[in-house]
Amino acid sequence: MKLIMAVVQDQDSNRLMNALVENNFRATKLATTGGFLKSGNTTFMIGTEDVRVEKALEVIRESCKSREQLMAPVSPMGGNADSYIPYPVEVSVGGATVFVLPIEQFHQF
Ligand code: 2BA
Ligand code: 2BA
C-alpha cells in the first residue's frame, strides 16, 4: 500500500475530491499553508493499493491546474530587511506537488 500526499490549490480541491470519490479512492483532505506564499492550500492524503497509484496520479493530474499567483508585498515592519519585497511578484504555482510514500501498516479500529 502507498500513501499519496498531494498539495493542491484550494480552487481545485472540490474537483479533485469529487474525481477521487468517483474513481473509488478514499481520501482525507487537510487545510494547509504554503511556506512561500504563506497562503492556504489543500493537502490530500490518499491511501491506496500499489497497483492503483498510477490511476490516482492521473486523477490528480487531470483535476489540478497550474496558475500564476501574485505574492503580496512583504511589509518591512517586524520582518528583517532581507525578506522585504516592496512590490507584488507573480509566482507560478504548480497544479499539484505529490509525494508517494510506502505504508508500513494500515489499521482501522
Ligand atoms: P470519509 O471519506 O468521509 O468516509 C466515511 C466513511 O464512509 C468511511 O469510514 C467508510 O465507512 C465510508 N466510505 C468511504 N468511502 C467509501 C466508498 N468509496 N464506498 C463505500 N463506503 C465508503 P472509514 O473507512 O472508517 O473512514 C473514516 C475516514 O478516514 C474517511 O472519511 C477518510 O477521511 C479517512 N480514510 C479512510 N480510509 C482512507 C484512505 N485509504 N486514505 C485516506 N483517508 C482515509
Ligand atoms: P508555497 O510554498 O506557498 O509555494 C508556492 C509557489 O511559490 C511554488 O509553487 C513555487 O512556484 C514558488 N516557490 C516556492 N518556494 C520558492 C522559493 N524558495 N523561491 C522561488 N519560488 C518559490 P509549487 O512549487 O507548485 O508549490 C505549491 C505548494 O506545494 C507550495 O506552496 C508548498 O505548500 C507545496 N510544496 C511544494 N514543494 C514542496 C516540498 N518539496 N515539500 C513540501 N511542500 C511542498
From TrEMBL:
What domain of life? Bacteria
SUPFAM superfamilies in the cross-refs: GlnB-like
One protein family per Pfam: CdAMP_rec
By its UniProt entry, which InterPro entries does this protein fall under?
A: CdAMP_rec, N-reg_PII-like_a/b, N-reg_PII/ATP_PRibTrfase_C
Q: Which PANTHER family match?
A: CYCLIC DI-AMP RECEPTOR A
Q: What's the protein here called? A: Uncharacterized protein
